[in-house]
Amino acid sequence: MSVPTVRLAFALSLVAALPAAAADWPQWNGGPTRNAVSPEKNPPTDFQLPITEDGKVVKAARGIAWTAELGSQTVIPPVVAGGLVWVCTNARAPDDPKLKDKDWDGGVLMCLRESDGKLLWRQRTPRLGTSYTEDFPHAALGSVPLVEGDRLWFTNNRCEVVCLDIAPLKTGKGEPREVWKLDLRKQLGVFQHLPLMARGFAASVAADKERLFVVTHNGVDENHVKVPSPDAPSLVCLDKASGKVLWKDSSPGTGILHCQVSSPLVCEVGGRAQVIVGQGDGWLRSFDPPTGKPLWKFDLNPKDAEYEIAGGGTRNYVMATPMLYDGRVYLPTGQDPEHAGGVAHLYCIDPTKAGDVSRELDAGPKKGKPNPNSAVVWYTPSQVPADAPRIEVGKKKRDLLRDRRDFYFGRTIAGTTAHDGLLYTAELDGYVYCFDAKTGKLHWVEDTKSLVRGQPLWADGKLFVGTDDGNVFIFAHGKEKKLLAKVESDELLYPGLVFANGTLYVTGQSRLYAVRSPK
């Protein structure tokens, strides 16, 4: 029997019936394509987040409609749906030093009123208390909820998939009600491994009309060597209404390198529906949604790549989420931010083929040969291509791509964003790229001089990128690099930004800012 969640606070009397808004973002990055493009106009660009020193405000906030206090760790963006804002975070340490972690620590799901940020409901899920690997202390709840009408689904820090009825909260008649819960550890034998330095970052659920698709987080043990549960599923399909397991797949098996936190992409291309997921063995796989039958698979690593614990090698797995744009799937590789930086690859893949559609086929140990059935449209090679533009920086005119390191594209946990033929992506090491979406031609690169974990947001001809240093970079959309603004703050901005219903949501480590332009 699973430990029940603990409800800490709610203010139901403050809720009136909330009408559904026209431009909600009810799931990860606003839609099933996983492409962070807002359909709205006029996102705010002239604003200021507060900056404090020694407890005193040295730069006052400007253009902020409301601010909500979160936990001490927040790593994913909010979901906006039906007049409500859902935020995943953690519990802040209490003032009472006598309380032990088990009495207060846990992942937290919060619900705020969209109009003014008022806290309406808050639920804490206590830690597993088993190991740091499975559910380490003080980490955030890292699975973005999926909201459809009166139902909400998410995976909590205890490796449980939960379905909530949120109708009572929406109508002001009560708190959300648990409809069903599936414990992936106890019922399916999963050994959960969440990446330490991602501070709770986890896979988010995806769905079609009748089914829910869940990455289980099955991974390696605390020594980062053995896969304790190789036969446990890495991907499961559930009935949305009941939580019943419809099918499951454990394709990575003993090949899992570290963790599995890439969220599924559910799409239809060329009349064929598929669920596509990047997995912990460094392969991208596609499945038939009703049956789980494998459709195609793609090795995201060169055949000569080698994996080393702590990131010293050249073989990667996937932490970013696959994105669909103009009939193509885009996905970069990466590793846990805890590991060292290194070479990675960004792929554009044709999802209409079948079988092994990798760039290379095995041709002996650590050897590959061209695959005639390859689905590669383009990819970033290990070394900087000769035709890449020279991007010079600094007084000494050092080339940003060639003089700083011995590889082209680096590891990331952030997904890609595309619009109007241009593809934007960001490395963990802080480089923001603009590619031609069809050909992979590089147009420009910007060094933010910080870490970047969140997916870039495109809105009305502007690109928004948040950094670990607390800066929001705002670029003009286009083949020529143009920085429109750089907004500073003293918050760590791990998640990507969201623009919905005229409000730009900037998520800091411990605060959520709702930014609105003056009417």
Topology of this structure?
Layout: E1 6-10, E2 37-38, E3 51-53, E4 56-59, E5 64-69, E6 79-81, E7 84-90, H1 101-104, E8 106-113, E9 119-126, H2 132-135, E10 146-148, E11 151-155, E12 160-165, H3 167-171, E13 177-183, H4 184-188, E14 206-207, E15 211-215, E16 235-239, E17 245-249, E18 265-269, E19 272-278, E20 283-287, E21 294-299, E22 323-325, E23 328-332, E24 346-349, E25 355-356, E26 360-362, E27 368-370, E28 376-379, E29 392-393, E30 398-399, E31 417-419, E32 422-426, E33 431-436, E34 442-447, E35 457-459, E36 462-466, E37 472-476, E38 483-487, E39 498-500, E40 503-507, E41 511-515
Parallel strand pairs: 2-35, 21-25
Antiparallel strand pairs: 1-9, 3-4, 5-41, 6-7, 7-8, 8-9, 10-11, 11-12, 12-13, 14-15, 15-16, 16-17, 18-19, 19-20, 20-21, 22-23, 23-24, 24-28, 26-27, 29-30, 31-32, 32-33, 33-34, 35-36, 36-37, 37-38, 39-40, 40-41
